[in-house]
Write a structure and sequence with these properties.
Elements lengths: L8 E5 L4 E6 L10 H16 L5 E6 L5 E2 L3 H7 L3 H20 L4 E5 L3 E2 L1 H8 L2 E5 L3 E3 L2 H4 L7 H9 L1 H10 L3 E2 H6 L5 E3 L4 H13 L3 H11 L1 H5 L1 H14 L4 H11 L16
Parallel strand pairs: 2-3, 3-5, 4-6, 5-7, 6-8, 7-10
Antiparallel strand pairs: 1-2, 8-9
Helix pairs in contact: 1-3, 3-4, 3-12, 6-7
Length: 271
């Protein structure tokens, strides 16, 4: 579809073929519902096909980059085989469309990035984050396996020890710590993040386009080679959406309390 057809992403064309994409649901801290998830999965094909775009920059409106999945969407998915099957296809498209987009993607992570937002934030070719932003993959705290992008990307960026720790605990990382452990390219004061992302975008947009795109394609073979790991993690995430823990995870988030997962009850069977 054309960029004018998007409802929750806005687009601004800038000099040198730089396309600024803004996740635009600030009243919900840019949390992803079904519509936004579809748009985040689709937009990278449109970026790749658009002859006017050389580099894409993605950021969030307001104080957040994207505050994860909308809880109402999670509730609609829980136990719903058709919804889960659709999401399995779409989450795969989100990851692979970013990887396969031949044009550079830069993320300006201006605030919290969780869930689908973290996919776009960290799979971008250059990630620039606010030092005080929070980044995380909280799937386990919701009661589902870490799918999305984490298994394919985090060990490559931060190593297995850090990936195991953050993905098994669901703890958040500050932007400054994300830079220290290699999750992002740069961490800057919040008011400098977008300007720096646009500066890098201009540099890439005025450089040798074939050289830059072929370099990106080569580097992303590391991610393509991990495709089976991602496919398995995505399937496991969707499998756990069909179990009881996710309902307790949503309830605990809504009630702002620690979850009491059925699988962690005394004598519970976990396999």
């Amino acid at each position: 579809m054309g960029f004018e057809d998007y409802q929750q992403l806005t687009f601004e064309r800038r000099e040198h073929g730089v396309l600024l994409i803004t996740i635009n649901r600030p009243e919900k801290y840019n949390a992803a519902d079904e519509g936004m998830h579809t748009e985040l999965a689709t937009v990278w094909r449109d970026v790749a096909a658009d002859p006017e775009t050389r580099v894409a920059v993605i950021t969030g409106a307001g104080k957040a980059f994207s505050a994860g999945g909308d809880l109402a969407m999670v509730e609609r998915m829980a136990g719903n085989y058709d919804a889960v099957s659709h999401m399995l296809t779409e989450m795969s498209e989100l990851v692979y469309n970013i990887i396969n987009c031949d044009k550079p993607i830069i993320s300006a992570i201006n605030g919290v990035a969780v869930g689908a937002g973290t996919v776009a934030a960290l799979l971008a070719d250059v990630a620039i984050v606010a030092e005080d932003a929070k980044i995380g993959d909280g799937h386990v705290k919701l009661g589902v396996a870490a799918g999305d992008h984490a298994a394919i990307l985090w060990p490559l960026l931060a190593g297995m020890a850090k990936s195991r720790y953050y993905l098994l605990t669901g703890e958040m990382i500050t932007g400054a710590e994300a830079e220290r452990i290699g999750m992002v390219a740069k961490a800057l004061p919040r008011d400098q993040v977008l300007d720096e992302a646009l500066r890098v975008a201009d540099s890439l947009a005025t450089g040798s386009q074939q050289a830059i795109r072929l370099t990106k394609r080569t580097l992303n073979n590391w991610l393509r080679s991990a495709g089976p790991t991602f496919d398995q993690s995505a399937a496991y995430e969707m499998l756990t959406f069909l179990g009881p823990d996710v309902l307790e995870g949503v309830a605990a988030l809504r009630e702002k309390r620690a979850p009491s997962f059925p699988s962690a009850a005394p004598q519970a069977r976990t396999s």
